[in-house]
Amino acid sequence: MNSKYGLIKHLISTGTIHSSNIIEAFESIDSVDFALDPNASDVYEDYPLSIGYGQTISQPTTVAMMLEMLEPKEGDSILDIGSGSGWSTAILSYIVGKDGSVIGRERIKELVKFGNYNLEKYKFQMAKIIQARDTLGIIGEKFDRILVSGLFL
């Protein structure tokens, strides 16, 4: 696959994604904007890509499957644990819209900066990534859905 639409066509044809809001989000949020090397020839392949610090952007099939199971909806408040480069946070932000919110948690300080930088490309007002500490949640906050895509040790 050498394009965003080639990747999306693959995800649809394999039955990995089928919800219209998730397909639309994949079409609107370009994974290349979250890659460490946006000019790499394999940026649209269906496998994990390194973002440094021993971390990856998850394989698109994995992200699509997680989102289909999560069933995010417009207006939801979502916690995205292990947000990495911000790709899943951005996709979720697109889905929840201006009436929802997404907070990403990331344990690696440099990836918190990288993820927020990437989110700024889309001008989301209700999305941010914050540094994860000893707890995964956020005291005093309630969420409609929680996506866990990182392992915290």
Structure, described:
The chain has 153 residues and is α/β, with parallel strands linked by helices. It has one domain (4-148): 3-Layer(aba) Sandwich (Rossmann fold). The protein has helices spanning 4-13, 20-28, 60-70, 87-96, 109-120, and strands at 49-52, 55-57, 77-81, 101-106, 127-131, 145-148. β4 (101-106), α5 and β5 (127-131) form a beta-alpha-beta unit. α2 crosses α4 (87-96). It is globular, with a radius of gyration of 14 Å. The chain starts with a helix and ends in a 5-residue tail after the last strand.
Low-pLDDT runs of 5+ residues are none
Rg value: 14 Å
| The CATH architecture | 3-Layer(aba) Sandwich
Structural class per helix/strand content? alpha/beta
Sheet bearing the most strands, described?
Answer: 4 strands, parallel
- What is the number of strand segments? 6
Q: Can you write the helix and strand succession as a string? A: HHEEHEHEHEE
* Number of helical elements: 5
- Helix percentage range: 25-40%
Distance between the termini: 34 Å
- Strand order across the biggest sheet? 5-4-3-6
Envelope shape: globular
